[in-house]
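Re: weekly structure request thread

Next one in the queue (364 aa):
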Amino acid sequence: MVPATVEPAATAGRHRPSAAGWGLRGVVWAALAYLVLVFPLGRPATTVILYTTAVCYGIVALSLNVLLGYVGQISLGHQAFVGVGAFTSAYVVTEQGQSFWVGVLAAAAIGGGQALVLGGVSLRVRGLYFALITLSYGLVAQDNIFQIERLTGGGAGQPAPKPQGFETEWRYYYLCVGFLAVVLYLDWRMMRSKSGRALLALRENPRVAATFGINVRLATLFAFVVSGVFAGLGGALIAHNDTFVSPDPWNFNLALVFVIMTVVGGLRSRPGLVIGGAFFALLPYLIEQIPGFDSLLEAIPAPRDLSPLIAPLVIGPLLLIVNLIRFPGGIGQQLRPITRWLAGHRFDLHDRGLKEVQITDVRA
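Done, posted below.
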């Protein structure tokens, strides 16, 4: 006997949209493609740089989600992985005279390598202690690695020119969109594999995952390395978008922004993560567009360093509190009815996904 509660899910799985339904979905997909691919063409170069940064932040959010969303391990030093990737690519291109593609590959490799070393040291700990180890590494990178003048160029920063053939801001934007598409595909493919399903089981309960034959330490190390590779790639793209990279931005404040934007975007939701990363990248710019904001800022007597640049650290925690109380799944949870409808499922406004991963369905 099949329980009655299973029938709606089975029926939803067999739903086939009509021709009109697919046509309406095609219109929405075309509108999204226009927003991503055509809309930036009519914008100023300075604005396109911000759009490119938003795309790069989407890659960083996807990288942190591998740890935080799939494994359940928080990284408080993620800015170190992104920063090392940025400096590596800039150094390889500027000092070594290599091409942009070699610099990006080196940044991804170094990002995975440092994650492999750090993960190998911290495999025996989880939770708060793992977060403290990543925090310590972030502080070490901030106060030591990023102060190596030959690597970082000192206060002047390290030049990071755009690749040949993508010198304009618009062409480089499309290049970064292509890299984002590759990262999305790799993330999707990984979670359809045996290793990806093992990560989800590991997140819920390592002891239960071990009973399924999952090597807990090896799976955690695998997730850490993948996260480091994505972070290094994102850092390299950010460096060449700014055409230079300096030590100042890669501090603990940026690490907090990375964590907040990942949680607000929605753990394990690729559309939500990309939107969350883009939102926090564009937040200072959006704040500046508020009419009368500059005069309001001048009227505030203290603190004098208050500016749109710290908006993610002011608005981000407020959004995080709302997430934890009302919408634990973040932006991705709110968009789930729409994303599933675009994928061909029946529209269900109350579909917010499973509250937890079904470990009994994992085959690892």
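The chain has one domain: 22-361. The first helix runs from residue 7 to 13.
Next request, please.
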